[in-house]
Design a protein that fits this description.
Elements lengths: L1 H31 L9 H14 L20 E6 L5 H19 L3 E5 L5 H8 L6 E5 L13 H10 L8 H12 L12 E4 L5 E2 L7 H7 L4 E3 L13 H11 L30 E4 H4 L2 H13 L1 H4 L4 H12 L5 E3 L5 E3 L2 E3 L23 H8 L2
Parallel strand pairs: 1-2, 1-4, 2-3, 6-8
Antiparallel strand pairs: 4-7, 5-9, 6-7, 9-10
């Protein structure tokens, strides 16, 4: 009898403590609701708070390495060069990335622009994530014409161009920036890896791992997803300019590389390239002396403006020259669509965590993807 009473008393004491903790927690949420500008109900705020504690493992701070303020296992970020008028497209991309992946990993975003971001843009993208968000303006000299380019000759090329983006001046500025300067921006100075993202793209698959950590753990330098061929008219002299660089700098070219991916048996250019609107990169590669020397060689030739050299073929030629295939990874498990092309993992209509139609996203069957699988 005495033992039974003591047990009942103990249960009552525990119940009081639990009730007190829950009341205290709810009280904090009620107080914070005074500053609520998100439109969430008090109940939603409370349940979201409890969910965060579960997700981040609790503990003294209630956070782990993948919480928004956690110290990530890899110094990395999602990086976009984007304009203010592309806010809606950027929000769509972020919504899919967050739903499919980053709500679990909370890697920061870095947004770059050649013009100051508006407050509307800043609020618009910050609303899409709980991860940290950084905004940066391009540095002088990284957007526009270098002093050695003949702008009259460049205009003549634009005025007569009959290829995609051929008439655009800003597109050429973008390609030059992405080829030689994005990795030098101060907001990327402390990063070891970056994942390039773009407005108006789709991510078809749940990603249940950390691609940055996968790259780091496996010693990978470059990750890609779609590999088409380049429009020949945009790169008329890029191949020969690259071969000249190799002849002038044999000490920079490793004996083991994957140059046969871009070189046919007769020595001509396959025009294969990794579509760089999706790339995950160990930034030490772009920061290397070899890559910088190659970029400077290309930049001095003026091909960004006298033709329309894209950052995708330039990145790809550099990867092929300087890296081994074992240092490059095909993220074929990530379904991805950029306007005009898409990659949808096989079987995604019937199974797995992707939702897409492989018949409408057949990049895995492209010539360059097949060639990738064939080289050693």
């Amino acid at each position: 009898m005495f033992g039974s009473r003591r047990t009942v008393a103990l249960f009552k004491f525990v119940a009081i403590i639990v009730a007190f903790v829950l009341a205290l927690h709810l009280g904090i949420v009620l107080l914070s609701a005074r500053n609520n500008t998100t439109g969430q109900s008090i109940f939603d705020q409370w349940t979201n708070s409890l969910s965060r504690e579960k997700q981040y493992g609790g503990g003294a701070s209630g956070e782990d390495q993948y919480s928004p303020d956690g110290v990530k296992p890899v110094k990395a970020a999602l990086v976009a060069l984007v304009r203010n008028q592309e806010l809606y497209g950027m929000r769509k991309t972020m919504r899919e990335l967050e739903d499919r992946w980053n709500h679990k990993y909370n890697y920061p975003y870095v947004f770059l622009n050649n013009k100051p971001f508006t407050e509307k843009f800043k609020r618009g993208v910050q609303d899409m994530t709980k991860a940290k968000v950084h905004f940066g303006l391009l540095q002088p000299g990284t957007w526009g014409y270098p002093e050695w380019v003949d702008q009259i000759k460049a205009k003549e090329e634009r005025d007569t161009a009959q290829y995609i983006k051929g008439r655009s001046e800003s597109y050429r500025f973008m390609c030059r920036f992405q080829s030689g300067f994005v990795h030098k921006h101060p907001l990327l100075a402390e990063l070891d890896y970056y994942w390039r993202i773009e407005p108006d793209v789709n991510y078809y698959c749940d990603i249940d791992y950390d691609p940055f950590l996968y790259m780091k753990t496996n010693g990978l330098k470059y990750g890609w997803n779609i590999a088409p061929t380049e429009y020949e008219q945009t790169v008329r002299t890029l191949w020969n300019t690259t071969l000249n660089f190799m002849q002038e700098n044999p000490d920079l070219i490793p004996k083991e590389n994957m140059f046969d991916w871009v070189r046919n048996r007769d020595g001509s250019y396959t025009k294969c390239h990794f579509w760089s609107n999706f790339e995950i990169v160990d930034l030490s590669f772009y920061r290397s002396a070899q890559y910088e020397a190659y970029f400077q060689h290309l930049d001095r030739s003026g091909g960004f403006f006298y033709e329309r050299w894209g950052d995708a073929p330039i990145h790809s030629l550099a990867v092929s020259m300087f890296l081994k295939k074992s240092q490059v990874h095909y993220f074929n498990d990530i379904g991805y669509r950029h306007p005009a092309m898409a990659h949808c993992p096989s079987g995604s209509k019937e199974r797995g965590k992707c939702l897409c139609d492989p018949s409408e996203g057949g990049a895995d069957t492209f010539f360059c993807a097949r060639r990738w699988r064939s080289i050693s």
